[in-house]
Structure formats: structure tokens, C-alpha cells
Amino acid sequence: MQADGHRETANKILQTASKLFAEKGFSNVSVRDICKETGTTAPVIYYYFGNKKGLFDAVARKKITMADFIAQLTPPSQLRDPKKGLERFISTYLSSFPEHTFDIGLYMRDSATMDKRSAQMVFEDLEKIKGIAAGLIEGAMAKNLFRKSDAALASDCLLGMLNRDIFQHIHFARGSDREAYRRFVTDFFFRAMR
């Protein structure tokens, strides 16, 4: 019974902190603000999360993880046919990007820049995704499906094309025919790499 109360209190703090961080950014939210909204005290927050940064990290892990997305991108990289793997990577990327869990407001400091720790978390996740794409491209080069090139730069180009569509959708609510875009990017990238 007591464990349920602890879990309920911690969840209430997490939900409130998530809302406040998303609205105001990490730097503009104080422990006092969170206490006021949750009806708790600072020692309660410190008990569960250590400090404000520990609370922020817990919120980010719960809300903004891209681990599931990265896990979905990994199986295509394990296909024997790197071309098919790359086609599936592109399709999965465009159809499964975790746009509803990526709340950029949570990461903001003031109103225009990312908090340093948040930027590092996003960077690390994006580097994992880039590594998967580069591995697929290297596999296609090894089988002479693609010309020899810098796989890291080629993956940057591919991800740039994919991210353009994703972020147009997320940030500017511009819809696109994802299937047509997927076909175009796949064809364009494969032709460029021959």
C-alpha cells in the first residue's frame, strides 16, 4: 500500500515537471514551481529524484526516449541484402518517427536554445541512427551496389532528406504523401550512390 503511494507521488511529480519543462524550458522552472503545482515540498522531490537535474533526466527518459524507434531501425540493418535493408530503413524512418513523443519544448532553455544535457541526449540518439544508416550504406558499397564514398557523409545526406519531411510535418504541420516521398528519396538516393 505504501509503495503505491510512493509511486503515485513520484508519477505526479513527473507529470507536473514534464508539463512545466515543456511549457517553460528547464532553466525557467524552479523546484519551488514544481512543489507549488504538486502540493509537495522540495525534500520530497530530492528524495525521489536527487535534484532538479535528476528530475529533468527522469522526465526526459520517460517522455522523449527514441530507444523504441532506434530498435525498429536496427532489424533492417541486419538483412543480408543491404539495398533492401536501406529501403526498409527509409520506410521505417518515415512511417515510425516518434513525432508525438518528441516535445522540443521540454528541451528548451529560455526560449531559443537547448539545455546542454538535453542537446547531448538528442545528439547521441541521432548519432545511433546515423550509425545504422552508415552501416547499411557501407554494406551496399561492399557488394558494389553503391560506388565507394564516405558512408558517414552519405548517411548525413540521406537523413537530411528524411528529416526534412519529418520536421516539416512536426513543426509546420505540413502534410505530405509519405509513400510518394519515400519512393522519391529511395530512388534519388540510390541513383546518386551508383
Described by the principal axes of the CA atoms, the overall outline is: elongated
CATH T-level topology of the largest domain:
Tetracycline Repressor, domain 2
SSE run: HHHHHHHEEHHH
Rounded to the nearest angstrom, the radius of gyration is 21 Å
Structural class: mainly alpha
CATH superfamily of the largest domain, please?
Answer: Tetracycline Repressor, domain 2
Named at the architecture level, the CATH assignment of the largest domain is Orthogonal Bundle
Number of helices: 10
Give a count of the beta strands, DSSP E runs of length 2 or more. 2
> Helicity, in percent?
over 70%
Strand order of the largest sheet: 1-2
**Which CATH class of the largest domain applies here?**
Mainly Alpha
Number of domains in the coordinates?
Answer: 2
How is this structure best described in words?
The chain is mostly helical and 194 residues long. It folds into two domains: 2-63, Orthogonal Bundle (Arc Repressor Mutant, subunit A), CATH 1.10.10; 67-193, Tetracycline Repressor, domain 2 (Orthogonal Bundle), CATH 1.10.357. Helices cover 75% and strands 2% of the residues. It has helices spanning 2-24, 31-38, 42-49, 52-63, 67-77, 82-96, 104-107, 116-142, 151-172, 178-193; strands at residues 108-109, 113-114. It starts with a helix and ends with a helix.
